[in-house]
From TrEMBL:
Residues 30-48 have a biased composition (Low complexity). SUPFAM superfamilies: Periplasmic binding protein-like II. Gene3D superfamilies: Periplasmic binding protein-like II. Keywords: Signal. Residues 23-52 are annotated as: Disordered. InterPro entries: Bact_solute-bd_prot1 (IPR050490), SBP (IPR006059). Residues 1-19 form the signal peptide. This is Extracellular solute-binding protein family 1. Pfam families: SBP_bac_1. Transmembrane segments: none annotated.
Amino acid sequence: MKKLTAIAASVLLLSMLTAACGSSGEKDTATNTDKTNQNTTTTEATTTEQKDEPVTITVQGQKPDKKEAIEQLNLKINRFKAANANVTIKTDDWEYNPNEIGIKMAANNAPTEFTSYLTEGRTLAEHSWAADLTGLIGSWEHKDDLNPIMTKPVTVDGKIYGVPVDAYVMTITLNKKIFEEKGVPLPPLDWTWDELIDAAKKVNDPAKGIAGFIPMGKGNEAGWNWTNFLYAAGGDLQTVVDGKVTAAFNSEAGLKALELYKNLKDADVLPKNWALGYGDALNLFNQGRGAMVMCGSGNAADAAINTGGINKDDIVVYPIPSLTKGGKHTGVLGGSFKVINPKANEAEQKTAFNWITSEYYTDDFLNAIDSEITTRKNEGKIYIPQTIFYWKPESEFGKKFTDMLAKHDNVFQYDPTLMSLLEGKPEAEYEAQQTYAEIATVVQKVLTTKNLDLKKTLDDSANKIQSEVYNKIKVQK
């Protein structure tokens, strides 16, 4: 799930004034030398006194309880203002919500820049809720250093509507200690669905309240989790052909993914209360009441280590298992990007872009992360990096980032093999959140209903979202 128009206008105005004064002087040279000198003096004074016009922007803030993040944000604000004295920065801790963005834009009270999900790139662009940044990025010195994995989801019809921040590929996090206590060897990183079920059965311990596998079973999260297995089986949530969006999850791949959930339920390896949202599932894992949980990249590891107090050496991150041995470990690719409010004027948009990118590819950025890692160590916490960033990992800056992480002993390490196995597939282009919500009802039926006709349930769900949502989508050609 952030403006030089006034500055540019000032420069343009100054150029016009200078040109006008020069022209007048040329006309008067033969008749009035004193007037020419007076105009020249006035022009010089105007040039000397011209200053950047003041610009005020509202940027993405942090919730009051995130003291560490607030401190880092304030430091960045101070650094930016030191280099841009004409800019006033306000903060707004509103967090992007698909159900609120339309209201915010209609009321004209959305921040100048804010963070959104990569899934929302097309929606924001087509509703004119995100500014077209193609020109700003095109003239940026680092345009060729951006990670294409992250720019693709925010590119619509060849135009870029956001600045990438970071991304994740869905993974499954294991509690190694539970495996060790049960005398169960860890499955191979290059694992399959069958090996997932087998491992879950062996570590499952209902008497101790320990589930073999923790899925998210309520809210949009339920559909989000299930989609990973749909992708791993080679399926899609939807297709877009000739301007028409069509539900595609009621496919053979979708049926296999739904059968996996039924097999997990039949194996009795899920928590008794499986109706878990994002926070619920992670809390259960943090408490040592589940051996495996699905989440984005290192987010579950972060919560388990820094909130649950689980030793970092007892946590390991796995890719989504492949359907068959040697298959792809495809998981949902998500993340965040910065949006600039299209209702902001040109100067505000330019300033917001400069603010967002002010420390991209800089030592200031590296120093900020370095400082955050040091602070975490002083607090007894571990830093868990994302797996995908806005930069190309093989770039010079990417290598500098890796070298900086290597200086610290409180940085969580991913297995290099994991990084080679991870394969991300972007979320649905259209109405991803509504699609997840609809699929969540299917997941819940599988976990509660005996003798459920899985294919019919998938077909009914696909037909419902087709008629209620997809048929109303107008695809811009």
